Amino acid sequence: xxxxxHPRSLRPPKRSRWWSTLIAGAAVxxxxxxxxxxxxxxxxxxxxxxxxxxxxxxxxxxxLDAMTARLRAHPGAQGLRLRSLGGGILELVGxxxxxxxxxxxxxxxxxxxxxxxxxxxxxxxxxPQPGEDGDTQTRAPSSP
Length: 144
Description:
Elements: H1 7-10, H2 17-37, H3 44-51, H4 64-72, E1 80-86, E2 89-95, H5 102-110, E3 117-123
Parallel strand pairs: 2-3
Antiparallel strand pairs: 1-2
């Protein structure tokens, strides 16, 4: 008599199916972890380069003494002071005379090396005083 093979007997048991999925997932996870962690690690030489002092010829801050001397050369700028707020930010403070072109002075200061921003706190003689036409909050209300 011929032996009959049933299709059920050809399939592996259900228990062995999830093992292959688990092994494939672990292999993919290990490969992903290896790709993420294989970055180049810094060596001691790289860290020493970062900690080395900067050369003295290239200071991070602008040269305020030289800039103040050039500022004093402008007519009408004797009442102005120049301060560094750090990080290349300069503050120009004081009262300017009428003949001083403040916008040109600010453009000149902003063009200096290692200067990123110039903050303007300059009072001009032609600026409106509080209570003049430009200030509406201090006017007395008109009576009907």
